[in-house]
# Entry
Amino acid sequence: MTHAAIVEAAARIAPFVRRTPVLTSRTLDALAGRAVYFKAELFQITGSFKYRGATNAVQKLPAGTRGVVTHSSGNHGQALAKAAQIRGIPATIVMPATASAVKKAAVLGYGAAVVECGASLPEREAAVRSIQDKTGALAIPPFDHEDVIAGQGTAALELLEEIPDLDAIVAPVGGGGLISGFCLAAGSVRVFGAEPAGADDAARSKAAGERVRLEKTSSIADGLLANYLGELTWPIIRDRVEQIFTVSEDEIRAALTLVWERMKVLIEPSAAVGVAAVLSEPFRAVKADRIGVVLCGGNVTLPAI
Amino acid sequence: MTHAAIVEAAARIAPFVRRTPVLTSRTLDALAGRAVYFKAELFQITGSFKYRGATNAVQKLPAGTRGVVTHSSGNHGQALAKAAQIRGIPATIVMPATASAVKKAAVLGYGAAVVECGASLPEREAAVRSIQDKTGALAIPPFDHEDVIAGQGTAALELLEEIPDLDAIVAPVGGGGLISGFCLAAGSVRVFGAEPAGADDAARSKAAGERVRLEKTSSIADGLLANYLGELTWPIIRDRVEQIFTVSEDEIRAALTLVWERMKVLIEPSAAVGVAAVLSEPFRAVKADRIGVVLCGGNVTLPAI
# Structure
């Protein structure tokens, strides 16, 4: 995959996605000790950058595609549901029976069917295969897919168009789709990753020089709980990401509260991971005056006021 | 006061205030049955439009002014503290001893002194007079002041520059400073007000044709709990505001949750009042395809996640 794939994806999805704003905050600049530009993908349609990748993948499907299917209890499910609805293709989202009613309602609201299954990965994958067999639907995975990666990279392209002289970009890492797309989009700009310490497979993989699979992951940043990087995303991250910073749950909660209170934007915990990394002590060693951070999503259930 | 006062204020405060974005949401448009443009003053410095009025008033003070003082447990206190800090003038904010630690910390963080007093209006006013006598500070009231009104109006000027063909503007009403400024800025554009039913002095005043003073007010929208309109703001509202819509606490909470969940911006309850009015059944009678709504502030203490 190359930079050209991102540029093509940007042209393809432009009629469907929102060009999200780039936010700044004097308070955050002061705390970070540098200028920070926040690409606010929480304002993207369906509430996260995932809509970019899903739209790129769905728009590339041939006419006559009988349906799309994925398993996701999170942002990719909502994104695929909406992207398919726009194209007029039936979508089925496999969700664990334990997923929240709010998340099911969101997917149903975008016109997709919800199929419940057990919570384990084998059960989810079996449910997807069963739907494929029955309906002829194509599976669109959440990150390990060239068109999905290319779509996610368009957020970096927009950020660099608006702030061309960035020294570095920071993106959170789950399965690696977002940061892989950013690597391809970033040209010579440095790319750093951010991970919860409780789901640090990418940091461990970088350290080991090979894909590390975690048995268990745990974090409030529920969008980043992937146990391992993808086959496509790992080599890009291995070769192109300069360093992965890990942050504690306390750091994530502090960054979340900070962004809510001072920037007034309702990011989800996964989006706070990149902010927490930039504010962390180890990040001070990075010499970069102007950095971009993607606020990847805003799908968080708030306590009632 | 005239439109020219708003234009002058805009030029005066331009170096100090943030030009806030105008947001849109397909979900909110669909619910409102028209195109709604949200002027996002929650992103203003100090978290509310109050910084515009405070900055205009403070920037107009003569050189050698010895200090400014106000009583406020809310957004005007923070705004005046910051505006005075920028000008290098000492500020004292009188707050009831019962005000939250967070609000006191915000004012202290902007370099102002906090003086605690009793919660009643006479106690607050006495504390302000005592500080004036001791320090020679000038009192800058929260709304009933020409320079404050003119500053608030600059938000409407920006909104109309960005979306020139609005049919109407909706603003929440507390003491009336914001909506008075909007009336002066709006030219021929229609202006509507929005109030909590529990603090409906403006609606009652319009109905009575004279200023009505409420003995008690109560609402989650704590920025709109004024008991009566100002001497300056009342005639402007009487003559120029087409209608004041009142909304219930349930409507305010529903609008607050809706904006948080769907627009991902952390407005405070007072800002939800305008949104609730636009979504209310009585507002459907207003024939206006394109309306502006000011999201007046974002200073809300969230429950911990």
